Predict the 3D structure of the following.
Amino acid sequence: MNIAIVLAGGIGARLGADIPKAFVPVQQKPLIIYCLEVLNNNSQIDKIQIVAAEDWMAQVEEWTKEYEVAKKVVGYSIPGTTRQLSIFNALTDLKDIASDDDLIFIHDAARPLLTDTIIEDSFAVIAGYDGVLPVLPMKDTVYMSKSGTQVDSLLNREEIFAGQAPETFIFGKYYEANKSLADSGQIEKIKGSTEPAIMAGMKIYLIPGDENNFKITTQADLERFSEIVGKRS
């Protein structure tokens, strides 16, 4: 079974919105619905768990019915104080329905341009690995600086990649990797979803990412996405 976790708990401070950014309307549709439509229509995804603030859960549930994307949604989880704690909350809530061999597919509602290609590529190559991560190559020269004011060394940009969501993992191994960090009080320091997997020695396969699968962080990002949707319409 393949279960998608959709993260929609971010407050979007840099966006300047007065509601969580996952619920900002774009072309008369809440942002979260865009990725839910793709997940709901993709045959590789069996179930969906949504992470959203408790006082928004009823509204999100209404939207999933209104936009006909509710059939795969199995539950809601409360956000943590960090993105990784939100993921851990969802993993914990899914323990009752997920087996260790199931696959977990983690995506941000703030990345609304999810494609079927990324979904299918993620599941197609995971055999023999513990996870799959879409990445983009570095286009610029990359430097390392410990102080932030002086160059210490030049890094080989051919060996440096920028990670994206969605990230796919074997449920049991990934849950244990996160539980270990939570038990030791280290999970709040995690910056990326693949970091717990790497720390636990999980093997992660890299696939080509999608430059259009950008994360909406600023008003400029939102305007860019709105323009893309408008052209498609």
In short: DSSP finds seven helices and twelve strands in the chain. The chain has one domain: 2-232. The chain has a mean pLDDT of 94. Residues 27 and 229 are 7 Å apart (CA to CA).
